[in-house]
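Appendix B. One record, verbatim.
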Amino acid sequence: QPAQDDSTGFDVPDLDADSARIGEAVVGTVEKSEYIVLDDNKNVKHIFGFERLLNPDAGTEEWKLQKPYMEIYEQAVRYEIVSDRGTCLVETVAGNPSPANAHLEGDVKIHILPASADGPPKSTIHLDDLYYDSERSEFKTDGPIKIISQEGRMEGKGMLLIYNNSLGRIEYLNICLLYTSDAADELDGVDFG
């Protein structure tokens, strides 16, 4: 058996029992990572990822993330949620990390992208911050909100959005305080439930 040379040029971090873990794996620096969940037909159901894990040595399930994102794929629409930074309580589901609760901050955007021309209008929801609770499929903020789509624009403060995972759609949307609206048609109300 040939002798192994340890000077191959690879930077291998020192890992010990106090290093961060993803499942059973001990990790050092984590960058540009994503976790893909497939449905029973092997189609992408959703993707959770980030640019960089900022606390890899903390040994905690609460991750501090730079540029976290989540993509949710449904038959008629795709949702992309992005932000500058966030904290995320991560649980392991079927061997993969999955966000349980999260707080996103800094240039938070929810992109609603139709899969076809007859889908919902392309829209973007702009927020300063966003709280996510996976158990209730709830997204909320008390801060400013701006919704921009082909059909108009709304600005206000405070939002509660409930996503129905089994039906693959937004079940409830409530803007707490509406400041302005430039809708193509007159709005009957702000509560889209």
